[in-house]
Amino acid sequence: MEDLGIGQKFTNPRQVRPLAEVSGSYTYFAEGDVLLAKITPCFENGKLGIATGLSNAVGFGSSEYVVFRPGELVDREWLYYFLSRQSFRQEGATRMTGAVGHKRVAMEFIEAHPIPLPPIPEQKRIVAILDEAFEGIDAAIANTEKNVANARELFDNHLTSIFAERGKGWLERRIGDIANTQYGLSEKMNEDRQGYKIFRMGEVQGGRLIDTGDMKYADITREEFLKYKLHPGDVLFNRTNSYDLVGKTGIYDMSGDYCFASYLVRLEADRTALTPAFLNYFMNSSVFQRSVKQKASRSINQANINATILSNEPIFLPQAVADQVAIVRELDGLSSQTQRLQGLYQDKLAFMSGLKQSILRKAFAGELTAHPEKALQEAAE
């Protein structure tokens, strides 16, 4: 399934195996067939491609593929673009069958779905317009994604420089000397809105805790909840995850009744010596992240950093809380500017994704008669 792309017209097969090993266990297809993922969430995400580059023009793959073999009336790239339409995926998603997490689009829906079929030369003409238009959009998307990364890198570099270079008279302390640590709640969670909302590692995003709207709940007594209730300024540290994600840290700056799960560690700063927001910024810097990850224990797919390691980790800070507050104010300002830029870029990405779908709608409604530049302009309007 990983060889089937999203927005990638042609497949990129990376394995070659003897026919005897695969002929009885995998889905068969041939050079030029169109492959569509039928299982959730791959179908909804648009995993789709034309099989190319196959050894001996023969391929085998996931049993979760639907294989289309274009006949004389349909060009394979015309079919690819038709299946790329968001409206097709949305309608198919409503017709899925099976258990939650293993739903598949119904074959009856696919087989009965109508497709417009102009003459092959007209299909090829429209495909050529789509190719050129999408190439331009993809280049703009790549540049915008680079701008998003550059904006975040600018902030991260400045954050790192503050803690790497440090000011005159800064102190080095152990985190455990100026912040208390506490493991989170280990009770079973539910999705029935019974009890109290509970933060998990997925809700630690961008240095903050985010109520994503689909949080789980812990059905516990009020007394037990108060033991794990979050207060503004609490910092949560993700102690177990993949190596890339372990150590994610976010500050709680909300109000309401929230607690936190066992694979998170709460840090409560001694506010006479440490500003919580300063602690959060420090723990999100590469200075801290590199250092603490080096001490993580690792298994095959997971890394772990316990509260003892966390408490013994050094933190660098100005002695005066007022100086910490000034640094936080500076970082807040830069962070706000960075988020504004990222928001603008994300809006641009959403617009360009919508532009593709607008062009596809016009193409399959018989309205795409212009050159690529004109098609882009009309779709944008």
Written account of the structure:
Among the domains are: 117 residues, Alpha-Beta Complex (Adenine-n6-DNA-methyltransferase TaqI, Chain A, domain 2); 147 residues, Adenine-n6-DNA-methyltransferase TaqI, Chain A, domain 2 (Alpha-Beta Complex), CATH 3.90.220. 43% of the residues lie in helices and 19% in strands. The protein has 13 helices and 22 strands. The model has no long low-confidence stretch (mean pLDDT 91).
Can you summarize the main beta sheet?
4 strands, antiparallel
Mean pLDDT: 91
What is the beta-strand fraction?
15-25%
Radius of gyration, whole Å: 26 Å
- The chain-level structural class is alpha+beta
The CATH superfamily of the domain at 171-317 bears the name DNA methylase specificity domains
Per DSSP E runs of 2 or more residues, the count of β-strands stands at 22
Judging from the principal axes of the Cα atoms, what is the shape?
elongated
CATH class of the domain at 171-317: Alpha Beta
Biggest sheet, spatial arrangement of strands: 9-19-15-17
Kindly state the percentage of residues in helix: 40-55%
CATH topology heading of the domain at 171-317 = Adenine-n6-DNA-methyltransferase TaqI, Chain A, domain 2
CATH architecture of the domain at 171-317: Alpha-Beta Complex
Unreliable spans? none
Cα distance spanning the termini: 36 Å
Helical stretch count? 13
